Amino acid sequence: MRLAAAFILCTGPAAAQAVDCSAPQTQADMTHCAGLAYQAADADLNATYQLAMNDWLGGRNAPSGQALLTAQRAWLSYRDAHCSAVAAKYEGGSIQPMMHADCLTRLTNARTEEIRAYAEPY
Fold first, then answer.
1. Angle (CA) 70 58 71, round 5°
2. 94-107, pLDDT tens digit by residue?
3. Number of C-alpha atoms within 13 angstroms, CB side, residue 64?
4. DSSP per residue over 34-102, as a string?
5. What residues does each domain of the chain span?
6. Residue 21 DSSP SS3
7. Which of 10, 30, 62, 111 could form an SS bridge with 24, CB 3.0 to 4.6 Å?
8. What tens digit of pLDDT does each residue of 41-69 get?
9. CATH architecture entry for 27-119
């Protein structure tokens, strides 16, 4: 539910205006930019995961593909629960959605690198 709140803020008035994410000026801008960073990280993870599944692991039906699918599902549950716990520290504050998105981005980028590292051919 908190993730939804982060993206509702990211699609609000700040999204309608050009926000300079290299120097956001307000909490709404910072939250918007954090949401954009997470969306980019998630897209990169999804693309990397698909390449690993299709090109190197032989798809979902191969034993290694099934193992990656199982691991990815578990990791997604962990990431979401962990970032909700991180954001809970800021419950009720305007910074909470940004902290949630920042956590999602950080863990998603790390997972993308993990998949890249073992998906590269020997």
1. 15
2. 999 999 999 999 99
3. 11
4. HHHHHHHHHHHHHHHHHHIIIIIS--TTSHHHHHHHHHHHHHHHHHHHHHHHHHHTTTTSTTHHHHHHH
5. 27-119
6. coil
7. 30
8. 999 999 999 999 887 777 777 888 888 99
9. Up-down Bundle (1.20)
